[in-house]
Amino acid sequence: MLGYALGSLFEKADEKEKFKNHFKNVSKSAAQFEISLLILSAYVIKADGKIDNRELIYVRDKFSTMFGSSRSKEYFKLFKHIINNNSISLRQICIQIGKNISHAQRLQLIHFLYGISLADQHIDKSEINVIEKIGFYMNISTKDLNSIKAMFYKDPDQAYKILEISSSASNSEIKKAYRKMVMKYHPDKLSARGVPKEMIDLATERSQSITAAYDLIKAARGLK
Q1: CB of 44 within 8 A of CB of 127?
Q2: Which residue intervals of the chain are DSSP H helices?
Q3: Distance CA 48, CA 153 (A)
Q4: Does residue 164 contact residue 173 with C-beta atoms inside 8 Å?
Q5: Environment class of residue 33 by beta-carbon count within 10 Å: exposed (0-12), middle (13-18) or buried (19+)?
Q6: Would you say the pTM of this structure is higher than 0.90?
Q7: CB burial class (10 A; 0-12, 13-18, 19+) of residue 50?
């Protein structure tokens, strides 16, 4: 996947090799995930026809937090090429991602992309369309996509979507759904598979969103 992406970005072999060397000390699974983040982030940022500095800052800060200042600077050298390049096929890169990273990792990618779209305090319809298209290409279900999207809207109705239940669910059904979602997205499931720490950090954010949704529903219903 890395070779495909860099081959689409650079015509000159020496340029491709220069950036490929950046990943030589990174595990295969980490490199696959990180290059995916860069390319899909660029697609979301450009979805509404403009490049918003707040979204760029969000990506830069997240990368700095996940990978450290020095490593993130190297990533942003590559990101500058990606953001100004239209030669990478979204469908093809998503197919490559689907072949090379797990379903759990793909869910974390979608979560990260919605974080970018909200960085300017507004999720544009064009950004949602691109993220949903990415999810479709990566074989993520509509139910999972709606659950992740709902995490970025703070009201009880969206909280029900996060837990993948309807607002008519009983209190016992809500508790059951919460336990199911916690098990489904628990960070320990990723750590057991030896995925990069950065993936586990994103999974932790998602797990916290699930708990926040459950707390919101409990508060709305007056549950203990």
Answers
A1: yes
A2: 2-9, 13-21, 28-45, 53-67, 69-83, 90-100, 103-117, 125-137, 142-150, 156-162, 171-185, 187-191, 197-221
A3: 20
A4: no
A5: buried
A6: no
A7: exposed
Q: What is the residue-wise DSSP string for 183-195?
A: HHH-HHHHHTTT-
- For tokens 């990368």, name the residue: 63
pLDDT tens track for 57-87: 888 888 888 777 877 777 777 787 788 777 7
Question: Which of 37, 51, 30, 4 is CA-nearest to residue 110?
Answer: 37
Task: Please list, in sequence order, all residues whose beta carbon lies within 8 angstroms of the beta carbon of residue 165, skipping any fewer than 6 positions away.
Answer: 173, 174, 177
Q: Cα–Cα distance between 128 and 134 in angstroms, integer?
A: 10
**What whole-number percentage of the chain has pLDDT above 90?**
19
Tokens encoding 15? 């340029």
Query: Nearest Cα to 60, choosing from 38, 36, 82?
Result: 38
- What tokens does 175 get? 């508790």
**What is the widest separation between alpha-carbon atoms in the chain?**
63
Q: How far apart are CA 87 and CA 220, in angstroms?
A: 48
Please give the structure tokens belonging to residue 69: 């200042």
DSSP 51: -
Find tokens 């508790």 and name the residue: 175
